[in-house]
Amino acid sequence: MKNIKIYSEAQHLVERIKLKYPGFSGKTASHNDIVKLERELKIKLPEWYIQLYSNVPLIDAEVGVQEYEPDEGYDGVSYMMWGNVDDIIEESTKCEPGASVLKGGYIFAASCSHGSGDPIFIKINSDEPRVYRIYHDDFTKVQLGENLTSLFKNAII
To answer: How do residues 124-142 score in pLDDT, each as one tens digit?
Structure first.
């Protein structure tokens, strides 16, 4: 697998979640789910993405990322919930900003757990996939961490 670091950091993240929340049982995507995803998104997914969603139970995982500088009333951590295949399809094809940014290689990954409505996307057509919050009102992109590997490595549980 080309992006073994992504895969191993994701596995490690799931292990950390399970240590803190022993009842956590995330889900993976089946072969049929991946076929459905490629068909509905009308793209060929990179092998690392297929391996990640097929083998690491990230679906339904809730993790935080240090998105803002902390201040006296807020720790600056934003939490996200990793979506399932149906969420990915819906957010990437039927909702904004997903439908507009899909052609640029951005695929929905997670929703904001705090209810902002500003979803999280992975820019998949890169050797070092990046993760962005894309604001639904003006499609402004804010990069979350250096890349997907570092997001998994530095995720707050």
So the answer is: 988 789 999 999 889 999 9
